[in-house]
């Protein structure tokens, strides 16, 4: 086979965010867009089959031979970059695969070695465009390992920086708001972000990692966490260590069997202050099984028992399902905040959707109930404007019942009209618009 053809289909089968699932002994793909599903499906038809992925690896089958690549980094598509890239490692070599708009790819290819190829490709693009077809350009590069390690370190540091994020999260947590993080980042990055913004702290007794690869593995890990949470001895350790939980068969007379009858409510765990010193990290593959009907309430119970929950490598659909899980199992108001197209389904599912405008496009903003320019403004939206709005609406509705009296007229209708206007309508509107029980400074405390 022509080496360029091999690289072409290999890139198609590796450079994507598609999730695979076996249904009725048939491999099915779940993609963020129909385009990605079509491309991966085409590669499968030509013998380059995407088999499965984990947070750290991706497996393909090339002409019947399975190949596993170490997944180093995914740079998602957005309206600013207009391309998607993945960095994979195999046999000690790091390769960058990229697909995107022709203008963005042409700007970055080597001019010295690809002048003729660029001219041929441009003629093909013009022909496809004249036929009314959509076009996509592909490129790859072998990356020096030392250069990649240096870039990866700087990229990870930059990806976890956000102005006033730590302070905002701390104030929201102090206001008794439970925070779950749903991200597409890999597990290590998600945990580092959790520690950098103080969602995960060293004073946590333990941070559980659920990474089972089958439904039964996930069940055992979640049940093992329940057993560990019920053990009084766990209160002795407070080192915030990250632990991968391994299941040990519980005693049939243990408290776990009692807990199984009350998965629908986690109030018992939430009321116990000692149980709030735990964190939970679960990856997208394990979350797929944990969201199944037979495990969803168990996941919800464990999540409620932990002070911090981080779901990494999750798809847009999984984000929405996690929000729906909380909505359906707890009498609470849910708020989802996101900045990209991947967050739209989650924002629409929550009671309140907040979109952050920025370089990720306007999809999240257009689907949201409220729009903010930066994440740090969420604190003021909830603790200041949210408080004022709630109190204003409560007082407005209380007085609303007394407006527009309509009984047999004893007085002249003009007097009644003046009474309704000046003594009932206008004062109520004034309270509803301008009332502040305390000023902005004290609302933030």
UniProtKB/TrEMBL annotation:
GO CC terms: plasma membrane; trans-Golgi network
NCBIfam families, alphabetized: ATPase_P-type
A Pfam short name: Cation_ATPase
Keywords for the protein's UniProt record, in alphabetical order: ATP-binding, Magnesium, Membrane, Metal-binding, Nucleotide-binding, Phosphoprotein, Translocase, Transmembrane, Transmembrane helix
Subcellular location, principal: membrane
Enzyme class: translocase
Catalysed conversion reaction: ATP + H2O + phospholipidSide 1 = ADP + phosphate + phospholipidSide 2
One GO MF term: ATP hydrolysis activity
Cited InterPro entries: ATPase_P-typ_cyto_dom_N, ATPase_P-typ_TM_dom_sf, HAD-like_sf, HAD_sf, P_typ_ATPase, P_typ_ATPase_c
Enzyme Commission designation: 7.6.2.1
Domain of life according to the entry: Eukaryota
Annotated compartments: Membrane
Protein source organism: Soboliphyme baturini
Entry's family note: Belongs to the cation transport ATPase (P-type) (TC 3.A.3) family. Type IV subfamily.
A biological-process GO annotation: Golgi organization
Protein name: P-type phospholipid transporter
Membrane topology of the entry: Multi-pass membrane protein
Domain P-type ATPase C-terminal: 365-445
């Amino acid at each position: 086979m022509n080496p360029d053809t091999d690289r072409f289909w290999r890139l198609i089968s590796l450079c994507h965010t598609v999730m695979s699932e076996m249904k009725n002994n048939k491999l099915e793909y779940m993609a963020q867009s129909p385009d990605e599903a079509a491309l991966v499906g085409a590669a499968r038809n030509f013998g380059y089959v995407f088999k499965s992925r984990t947070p750290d690896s991706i497996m393909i089958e090339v002409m019947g031979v399975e190949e596993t690549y170490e997944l180093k980094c995914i740079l998602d598509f957005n309206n600013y970059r207009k391309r998607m890239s993945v960095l994979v490692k195999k046999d000690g070599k790091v390769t960058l695969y990229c697909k995107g708009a022709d203008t963005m790819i042409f700007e970055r290819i080597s001019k010295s070695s690809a002048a003729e190829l660029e001219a041929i490709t441009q003629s093909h693009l013009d022909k496809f465009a004249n036929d009314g077809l959509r076009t996509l350009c592909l490129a790859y590069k072998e990356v020096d390992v030392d250069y990649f390690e240096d870039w990866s370190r700087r990229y990870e540091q930059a990806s976890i920086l956000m102005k006033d994020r730590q302070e905002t999260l701390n104030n929201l947590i102090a206001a008794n708001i439970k925070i779950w993080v749903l991200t597409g980042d890999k597990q290590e990055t998600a945990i580092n972000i959790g520690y950098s913004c103080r969602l995960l702290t060293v004073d946590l007794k333990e941070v559980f990692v659920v990474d089972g690869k089958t439904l039964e593995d996930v069940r055992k890990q979640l049940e093992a966490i329940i057993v560990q949470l019920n053990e009084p001895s766990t209160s002795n350790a407070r080192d915030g260590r990250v632990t991968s939980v391994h299941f040990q068969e519980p005693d049939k007379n243990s408290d776990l069997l009692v807990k199984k009858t009350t998965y629908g409510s986690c109030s018992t765990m939430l009321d116990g202050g000692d149980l709030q010193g735990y964190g939970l990290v679960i990856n997208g593959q394990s979350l797929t099984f944990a969201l199944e009907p037979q495990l969803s309430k168990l996941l919800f119970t464990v999540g409620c028992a932990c002070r911090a929950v981080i779901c990494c490598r999750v798809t847009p659909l999984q984000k929405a399902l996690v929000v729906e899980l909380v909505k359906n199992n707890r009498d609470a108001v849910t708020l989802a905040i996101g900045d990209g197209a991947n967050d739209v389904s989650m924002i629409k599912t929550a009671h309140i959707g907040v979109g952050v405008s920025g370089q990720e496009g306007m999809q999240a903003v257009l689907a949201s109930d409220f729009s903010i320019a930066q994440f740090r403004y969420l604190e003021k939206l909830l603790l200041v404007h949210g408080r004022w709005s709630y109190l204003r609406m409560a007082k407005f509705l209380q007085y609303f019942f007394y407006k527009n009296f309509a009984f047999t007229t004893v007085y002249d209708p003009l007097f009644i009209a003046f009474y309704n206007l000046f003594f009932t309508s206008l004062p109520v509107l004034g309270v509803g618009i301008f009332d502040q029980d305390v000023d902005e400074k004290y609302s933030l405390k």
